[in-house]
Amino acid sequence: MFKDRTASGRPPVPSAWRGVRLRRLEIGADPDHPAEPVIIPAAWPDQSAAGLVALRRSPRAITAAEAAAAWIDPIAATMTDNEPIGPALHDLLISRRAAPSPGLWHGQPEAIPGFVFNLPMFLDETAGFDIEGFTRAIELAVTALSHANPTAQRLALGMADLALLLARLDLDYASEAARAVAATLAGLLAAHADIASAGLLARGIAPGTPITGAPLPARCAIAGLTQAATAAQTQVARLALRQHRSLTGIMPPGPVEALLGVETIGIAAPLSALSGDGSLAFWACARLAAKGCPAESALAATLAGSDPFGVPDRAASQTMHAAVAPFCALLPELPTTLPQRAAQPGIGRDKLPTRRGGYTQKIAIGGHKLYLRTGEYPDGRLGEIAVTLPRESAAFRGMAEAFASAVSLGLQHGVPLEDFVDEFAFTRFGVSGPVEGDSAITQASSLLDYIFRHLATNYLGRHDLSGAAEDLPDTPAPPPRLPLDLPESEMRPRRQRPALKLVS
């Protein structure tokens, strides 16, 4: 438990954190610095510590309570009434229900400040979905962001880990019922954000923006959710005007999702039933629990050729995107990929030329260095990767090099890079945390997650996976880096291996 540190010169512990059970982790924020202690609630996952290191404003704030107070206290100081906004914001964070965008943590203004709502944390196995708590959190977030950024005309209140919520409800991500749940939640989010923004307008903060709505699905699997969303939309229709130009949106992934322990970003579909370490993903475990299906039965069904988890395909992502879009002002564009080279019958392996293009990327993830080298065909297509982990054990380095060789063989035999990205992006295991050395991808859940999201950004145009603000659809992506071509006169022949001849 926390102790009051007022006597030692440290700020007092907020009352909401007193009695919270804690644990201490050691994590390095930079590869050239030793690991430092981080204190988080015991109920938080390990990845939350990495997110806290990336979000805290001062290196001295080693506890989650101090890092939270750094952005909550200034907001509470701006409130003119006696509303206890501070304890409510602390409670949201302690329960991992919601957290603000990085700018608020760092004390820096953002063009579009936001809040991320972790949907599964509002679902209770016995009481169901906490609709009242969800709506209170929405209005609280609008109020907090407006007082922290009074000049911001756009906010981005977004949902996260929709896939895990649907799994706990035993709904297939690709089903119509799942899309109805997502659309109704998005409609409720938009309506209560409008209500809060209209309340700020009534205090004379801004001239006002007309409010427009969208029709809700006829029915929803969550009891009472449709009625709550309909009532909120009816109230919004009477208000007519709000303070902000837009209020809802899903921003690129970052340390906030890591802090909340989110498994899938926004409304994204899960890519696999397995996590990066080969175990079942959280959403897959939740789906089996909701179906009452033991692991043995799931294994038997898998061996028989069926899918007991309901892993969605790309079409499911498109239909989910279309269902939520009317209620969300800012959504990442659906992935657009470049044409892939197909394997030609009878040709087999398409080897790279002896002299090939490519580049080397040096980064560090959670203090672990990584070198990624690429090899390209003359037309710029990726045909080879090499992975070097200089500070890891010999066994781990060998496994990484062997894995890179296997991927290279697959690429040269015509396996599309997109298939590798779909399989390994956002895998979660081992080394994870903030990324140093790559401005496009600032957070990675594993080494494989970084490698394949980086390759997708540079070779497939998948800037929706990069997670950097500058890679939003408004900004064209830079082309892959290529080396300078050398003149033919400077090309040296390969050294011939000496041969032994027997002369009789």
Structural class: alpha+beta
Low-pLDDT residue intervals, each spanning 5 or more residues: 1-8, 336-347, 468-504
Oligomer: single chain
Gross geometry = globular
Mean pLDDT: 84
Can you summarize the main beta sheet?
5 strands, antiparallel
Helix amount? 25-40%
Rg from alpha-carbon coordinates: 25 Å
EC number: 1.17.4.1
Keywords: DNA synthesis, Nucleotide-binding
Region (Disordered): 467-504
Pfam family, one: TSCPD
How do you describe this structure in short?
By secondary structure, the chain is α+β, with helices and mostly antiparallel strands. It is 36% helix and 13% strand.
Any overview of this molecule?
This protein has 504 residues and is an alpha+beta fold. The protein folds into two domains: 322 residues, no CATH class; 112 residues, no CATH class. Helix content is 36%, strand content 13%. It is built from 15 helices and 15 strands. The chain has a five-stranded antiparallel beta sheet. It has a four-stranded mixed beta sheet with strand order 3-4-7-10. Strand 14 and strand 15 form a beta hairpin. The protein starts with 21 loop residues before the first strand and ends in a 45-residue tail after the last helix. The N terminus and C terminus are likely disordered. This is ribonucleoside-diphosphate reductase. GO terms for molecular function: nucleotide binding; ribonucleoside-diphosphate reductase activity, thioredoxin disulfide as acceptor.
Write the layout of secondary structure elements.
Blueprint: E1 22-27, E2 36-41, H1 47-55, H2 64-78, H3 85-94, E3 98-100, H4 102-106, E4 114-118, E5 123-124, E6 128-129, H5 131-148, E7 154-160, H6 162-168, H7 176-201, E8 209-210, H8 225-239, E9 241-242, E10 246-248, H9 255-260, H10 282-291, H11 295-303, H12 314-324, E11 360-365, E12 368-376, E13 382-388, H13 394-412, H14 417-424, E14 433-436, E15 443-444, H15 447-459
Parallel strand pairs: 4-7, 7-10
Antiparallel strand pairs: 1-2, 3-4, 5-6, 8-9, 11-12, 11-14, 12-13, 14-15
Helix pairs in contact: 2-3, 2-5, 3-5, 5-7, 6-10, 7-8, 7-12, 14-15
